[in-house]
Amino acid sequence: MDRMITKLLYKSKEAFMTAIEIYNKPTLHYRAEGFSFFICNSWELMLKAYMIHKLGEDSIYYENNPNRTITLKRCISIVFANETSPLRLNLEKILELRNMSTIFVTEEYEFIYLPLFQSCIFNFIEKMKDFHDIDMTKIIPPNLFTRTLNINSINANEVKAKYPQEIANKIINANNYISTLTSQNNHTFATNIENYNHIANTKDKSILSINNEDRIKIIKELKDPNNTHKYNMRSCNNEINKRLKSLGINLKFNRYHFELFCEYYRIKENPKLCFIYKINSSPNYSYSIKTIDFIVDEIKKDPKNIIESLRENLKK
């Protein structure tokens, strides 16, 4: 049994690495479909290894056909029994894409499903660690796990002009449906890592001169706080603790720790990290994914002493 689990996990890691390679190839057409094939394969192998360990080898075979293993959809329903959990919904949506991609392929699906892919990667890393104590961040560089998504990637009129009506309706309906599900679930279902670019025209903006006549304006980042700064302190702490756990760092990050970081590094003064809602007399704060990334990176440098070090430095 142990030998079979080891083999399944080896293949699962290989499939995951292939999915990440496809995910990071900008010149590859139809990355969404290719990624969905391999990420589903990696999940299926990993979940079956988990089921064998917990339920026995017979659990991955059909009762009336012991020579055939059950589908990924069945594995998901057994391991993640809660039908409404964002993780399960995420996997089921990507599985639908994989099944549909065998007969229906369009490049627009990359833009629709990329936020789901992003969460699916994070979810796989977390469950591989929880279920099998395998740290994927030691196998693949963490910087390869994220990709940015340009805002307004799907334009209904452009899609209608590009495809026959039936296909255009499929794309538009899929986009609307995924967007609705995203708004109803947390980052375990979908994660947007977005780039907002704007050419600065005003004279007070920095300008890089190429020659005496031509100029290139420095790109200015525009922020919609509902998208770019959507984490409150509690959700930041939850995500930080999740990442620390996946990294094997034994630190229960709490509200006090978060405030230490905010005070020492002046996080609330940095618009890239924090957005201040000044509606009432008491301001409300929301934070970007960069805040979470920054705090985790700082903790990784000295996990045993970072909190005490911040505390002592603030006393000076």
From TrEMBL:
Lineage of producing organism: Bacteria, Bacillati, Bacillota, Clostridia, Eubacteriales
Annotated ranges, domain DUF3644: 7-176
Recorded superkingdom: Bacteria
Name of protein: DUF3644 domain-containing protein
Short name of one Pfam family: EC042_2821
Ranges where the EC042-2821-like Restriction Endonuclease-like domain occurs: 224-311
Alphabetical list of InterPro entries matching this protein: DUF3644 (IPR022104), EC042_2821 (IPR049530)
Native species: Clostridium manihotivorum
